[in-house]
Specification:
Elements: E1 3-4, H1 15-25, H2 36-56, E2 63-66, H3 69-87, E3 93-96, H4 102-113, E4 117-120, H5 131-140, E5 145-149, H6 163-171, E6 177-180, H7 192-195, E7 199-203, E8 214-218, H8 244-282, E9 287-288, E10 303-307, H9 313-322, E11 325-326, H10 342-346, H11 351-355, E12 357-361, H12 368-392
Parallel strand pairs: 1-11, 3-4, 3-5, 5-6, 6-7
Antiparallel strand pairs: 2-8, 7-8, 9-10, 10-12
Length: about 400
């Protein structure tokens, strides 16, 4: 039996979300069709939109359905840049951080190849945005800034970003702010209207819903330039036939994740603290990363990120996997790519430290037994990984 501690990559489906999705799978109807079956499908979509809006503190018309977090991030970053640049060609700068998910960073890199000026504002040793540097970057030439994008919580080390403070700085200059809140949904309080941000990314499969569906919450006053053109669905921002069963499951999962968030956060904080402290007792030189202060302004409650000096993270991961313990060396989107974490490097760590890191991310199915399994396995696994690393080092002379 496996011990699943990679909830930041994807979390198990809620049974209620599976039931809602299953109920729609055998029903025919395109939500854009005008006949009875199409109207029934449209009703499911709009009721789901209202449920998601109610759970996330926004208006239904601000919920734009997408295929997931990557598409939502791309739509926000590229779409808002193009729209703002079109309105005022002087707006060529985009501000962000070097610890963003690759869905944002790679979209920014692409924009940089077609004329945008991308500026990644530094973070501190905990991975948190340097607000003074952000303010200085904005104030250098505010009229040239098209938008800013600052994630809500980091997917690797769990540090929560000062989104409210960044928003206040951006708003003072009329700059819209997007935030990738994929990791926050279900673990942190999340309210679109209360946050004040202009656009916010969420995805279903990180919150107990199905894969392949997500949303960009975007203020009605903003009109991102579409990435996809076709039928004009989703207020002509995101064309494409809507996945009615997935949207139904997404709505149920979002409601449950939000309703259970406070209780889950308490449970995850307790389990994560026990795991973090227990690993450091078993491996005294293991180093914990990210903000270690508990609370929704500091860290994701279920995130545990550790480096193990003298180990290769990939080797340690596979040794734990052989014991049935599933974790990661960072973002799932980087799986199999032999390069050190860009998040760790941005935080000031050297390549060896970045390569020796593991991420344990807990979620709604995590238990005390899962923590016990890691604590039983981690000491021998680190010892074996260190022996393997020593054996691979070149002999001097």
């Amino acid at each position: 039996m496996s011990v699943y501690l990679d909830h930041a990559a994807t979390t198990p489906l809620f049974p209620e979300a599976a039931a809602a999705m299953t109920a729609e799978l055998t029903r025919v109807g395109n939500a854009s069709s005008l006949h009875a079956s199409g109207r029934a499908a449209r009703r499911v979509v709009e009721e789901s939109r209202e449920r998601i809006a109610g759970a996330l503190g926004c208006r239904p018309g601000e919920v734009v359905f997408t295929s997931g977090g990557t598409e939502s991030d791309n739509l926000a970053v590229k779409g808002l840049y193009w729209a703002r640049h079109h309105d005022d060609p002087r707006r060529v700068r985009v501000l962000s951080t070097p610890v963003e998910h690759h869905a944002v960073l790679d979209a920014l890199a692409w924009l940089g190849e077609v004329g945008a000026e991308v500026e990644l504002v530094p973070v501190d040793a905990q991975g948190r945005l340097d607000l003074d540097a952000f303010a200085a970057t904005l104030e250098a030439d505010p009229g040239s800034v098209a938008l800013a994008s600052v994630m809500w919580a980091n997917n690797e080390v769990g540090t929560v970003q000062p989104v409210g403070e960044a928003l206040a700085l951006a708003r003072a200059h009329g700059v819209p702010l997007h935030t990738d809140a994929v990791q926050a949904l279900g673990q942190l309080p999340l309210d679109f209207a209360a946050s004040g941000v202009d656009a916010l990314t969420v995805t279903s499969h990180k919150a107990g819903g199905p894969h392949g569906v997500g949303a960009l919450l975007v203020r009605r006053e903003l009109a991102p330039t579409p990435l996809l053109h076709g039928g004009g669905q989703e207020r002509d921002v995101r064309s494409g036939t809507l996945d009615v069963p997935a949207i139904a499951g997404f709505a149920v999962a979002t409601e449950l994740a939000v309703a259970r968030q406070e209780q889950l956060a308490l449970s995850l904080e307790r389990l994560a603290t026990r795991l973090r402290d227990g690993v450091r007792r078993q491996v005294p030189d293991a180093v914990a990363h990210g903000d270690l202060v508990p609370g929704p302004d500091h860290r994701l409650p279920g995130s545990v990120h550790l480096s193990f000096p003298g180990c290769e993270g990939d080797s340690l991961l596979m040794l734990l996997d052989a014991r049935g313990i599933e974790c990661s060396t960072g973002s799932a989107c980087d799986a199999g790519v032999p390069q050190p974490s860009h998040v760790m490097r941005a935080m000031g760590h050297d390549e060896a430290t970045a390569r020796s890191s593991l991420r344990f991310s807990l979620g709604h199915t995590s238990t005390e037994a899962d923590v016990d399994a890691v604590l039983d396995a981690i000491g021998p696994a680190v010892e074996r990984a260190r022996r393997a690393s020593l054996a691979m080092r070149p002999v001097a002379g």
